[in-house]
Each structure stands twice: as C-alpha cells, then as structure tokens.
Amino acid sequence: MIVNIKYDDELVRDVILDPEENEDEDKLYVYSQLLNVENPALDFTRRAKKGEFNDLTDEEYEFALKRIEFISDFFFKKMAKVNIFLLTADLLRYVMKSIDEPTKFRKKEKE
C-alpha cells in the first residue's frame, strides 16, 4: 500500500491509502473488512463495569474517560469497529494536520 498525502496550500488536506501497482484492489477491500479494530471505548466500559478503575480518583477517571471519548468520537465515529485501513488513514491525517496546525488540534483534544 502507498500512503498518498494530499496537500492544499502546503497544508495536509487528506491522507489516502492506495494500492500499489501489483496489489489487487478487490483483495485489499476484502482484507479491510476482515481486519477490524475494536473501539477502545468498549473495552474501557467493560473494564469500568468490572471495577478496574475504582482505585482512580474522580479526576483521574474523568481524564481517562475524556481521552477514550475523544478517540471514540474522532477516530471511530462512535462505531464499534473500524477497519484497519480507515483507522490508519485517519490516524495519519490527524498527525499530519496536528503538525500543520498544532494549536487548533490540541485545543480540540482538550474540549
């Protein structure tokens, strides 16, 4: 696969994972449907219900919860699972844009 970074006025506009010449696009699609990453919010919820975070202070728990909610909302769009290719593209897009606009993205993350 090739990471194809699209620029607009020297800023990252998009990140797309494209197949290489020798790769079968249909097979990559099939693989993408098999390679799913579970939303970490689901594991966080399971662990919270088991009491694994009971030793955390309210502030520590809120901090952890806000991080998980950010990841769930931003990268998983609140879906239970996301295929690995879409997740990789979203993560790269976020990293590249945060380099271009570090203040904007860090403020969004803190909200």
Question: What are its keywords?
Answer:
111 residues; alpha+beta; two-stranded antiparallel ribbon; 19% strand
Summary?
The chain has 111 residues and is of the alpha+beta class. It is 58% helix and 19% strand.
Provide a descriptive summary of the structure in words.
By secondary structure, this protein is an alpha+beta fold. It has two domains: 70 residues, no CATH class; 39 residues, no CATH class. Helix content is 58%, strand content 19%. It is built from five helices and four strands, in the order E-E-H-E-H-H-E-H-H. The strands form two sheets. It has a two-stranded antiparallel ribbon with strand order 1-2. Strand 1 and strand 2 form a beta hairpin. The longest helix has 18 residues. The chain is flat, with a radius of gyration of 17 Å.
SSE order in H/E notation? EEHEHHEHH
What is the count of helical runs?
5
Share of helix, binned: 55-70%
Distance between the termini: 34 Å
Low-confidence stretches: none
Determine the strand fraction and express it as a percent band: 15-25%
| Main sheet: strand order | 1-2
Q: Profile the largest sheet.
A: 2 strands, antiparallel
Kindly provide the radius of gyration, computed on alpha-carbon positions and rounded to a whole number of angstroms: 17 Å
Number of domains: 2
Number of strands: 4
**Global shape:** flat
- The mean pLDDT is 85
